[in-house]
Structure prediction request, 727 residues.
Amino acid sequence: MTRHDTAGTPIAPRQRDGSTVATPILQSQRSSKIRDRHLDRLAIVYVRQSSPQQVLDHKESRERQYELVDHALALGWPKSRTLVIDEDQGRTAKKSDSRQGFQRLLAEVSMDHVGLILGLDMSRLSRTSRDWHHLLEVCALFGTLLADQDGVYDANDSNDRLLLGLKGTMSEFEQFTMRNRLERGKLHKAERGELFHKVPCGYVKLPSDSVAFDPDEQAHKAVQLIFDKFDEIGSIYGLFHYLIRNNIRMGMRIQNGPQRGQLIWRRPALPTLNQMLHNPIYAGAYAYGRRPEGPRTKASRQGGYGHRWVPMSEWKVLLRNRLPAYITWERYLANLQRLEQNRSLPTSPGTPRKGAALLTGLLVCGSCGLRMHAAYRNKSTAYYSCERHLKVGTEQVCYGLRTTPVDDLVARQILLALEPAALELSLQAAHDVRRERDRLHHHWKQQLERARYESERAERQYQAVEPENRMVVRTLERRWEEALSKQRQLEDEYDRFQRMQPSQLGEDELARIAALSRDIPALWDAPKTTAADRKEIIRLLIERVIVHVRKDSEYVDTTIHWRGGFTSTHEVVRPVHRYEHMRDHDQLMGRITALLREGHSASQIASRLNSEGFRTPKARGSYTSSSVQQTITRYGLTEARKAERQLGRHEHSLPDLARALQMTEGKLRSWAVRGWVHARHSPAQRLWILWADGQERRRLKRLVTCSARGVAPPAELTTPKPRVKEC
Prediction:
């Protein structure tokens, strides 16, 4: 009795060995490798073409692949158990990660649902040895056959396995050969400067495959404005906010589709501006190979809009003076350098930040070489600090200092450097103001001219249509109203722009500017001169400033590296918290002691110190009666005066001996407590009297040196010699 499948197709009878007897219709195509266990499972026809262009142009190949369904029927599979997987149309077989159809095929085989996989040729399944051998291993494990136009293959058969391995190797070799040919062809075309996938904003590609400026004047001027304003602002974010604030749009040409070549106007975007400033085509150069290549390229650009470029020395092709240029090549290189400096890196100053600190991004720690950061405790107090211990994880902290001393020094040096060019600078500023005004007005006039033209054209189209054609009339009327509304909106924005602009400088204003230029400090300290303006001026003249704080002192060694290679060295005095760190500490203490001996009060001593020019710690103004009294009490100057009558031979008060040894009173007091120096103490008077002759003073000086080095002192330095009682 003849068996039939669900579709009514006769199925060959089975023999004892499990094989089937071919019917006369299938005898010429049936393979002996096909068993009932294969026929009971699915036959999958895998359809794939490498690119979307092949899907559109190579229809014959696609039809031949779909005809494999008939081949599956001829091999004994009914239509009900024949599955077509064609999700990978337009996807390359170079890798399987992006092929959903191939992943589905592997899943079906792994679930033991597939008896046969059909493809026009084995290259349709994979062109990499990794994916191909993975498929063979899965097919061998679950007993799945493979078939192409040459025959049926069993992955568990040694001869078939050898043949399939050769087919996979040949497919992979063919893939590499085609790719190398394509890359060589692209490179040869690029070396002639003729390879263009698309042209950027501000350019059009002519039918002759040459590149020219965009014929639209407004689109051309918008691109030129972008480069001019970047030269002035120096920051891509500042440029972006300028364009948005002034409602400046960019003319873009549609690259694909039925509206290809049509000009549309869009708001500028940061990625677009970044690409424009990095693209050498605007400098008239043709470049190929600016983007990195390799398996990590795509992954490295994920997660943000930023693009990566390889160094210019590694570009495959660079042809200068080949295309129309908006800027010069030198200007393009300067833009790249400016963009690199604006990056927040330890080696670059970055863009000027908000805040009163003038040297943000320019100040370098003299100890570790890292850039110092500005921190603001309140609106009036700012500090520079080195954060090496936070970045590296060390316990050692370099130092910090207030911004005022270093900023004032740099400001003075800047004013001195600007004095010879004062008049020229002021006239150039007036010229820049006038040029900026004219440029913006010209841009707005172009927008208004375009809007009026669109509304007039809509009106002419409306007037030309026959009134009886109501559908067309209503459509044209609506377009006319939209054009008029857009025109009125643009005119309102232009009026608002004009009101916000300052009045044009006349001859009187220019004369006043010229007079003011003779006094550069007045311009620097003018209320309208912002901190951002001062930072821009400093960055134009100075590359970096290196500071080295002398520890336990108020001195700061400052080195200014000017642009052009000149270097100047200066000494700055910073505010300190302790009297011991002041440069005139000994003179101050001596003067207070002398005035006390003369019988002056604390108020009188404060007046004398202020009149004689003595500074206070932290630079907090002048001395007062309370501050002098605190100093007298803290350093025991009153007790020292009282103890003068009690001092014996080679005896000293604690402050006097500390000054003689050039050490702090607190450390000397701790030595007295430890017994490292002969001392007697009067708790009632809070008075320490220490004994040290010439030999003891030399020992104590060696002990001071050893302590300053951080070395544990030997026993001979911490043991005072026996004191000889005097008669």
